[in-house]
Amino acid sequence: MNCAAWLNGTKSSGDIRGRGMMTGVELVTDRLTKEPAIQQTDRLVEDVLARNVLIGKGTPNTLKLRPPLIWSRNEVDVFISAFDDGLKAQR
Question: What's the CATH superfamily of 3-89?
Answer without folding.
Answer: Aspartate Aminotransferase, domain 1 (3.90.1150.10)
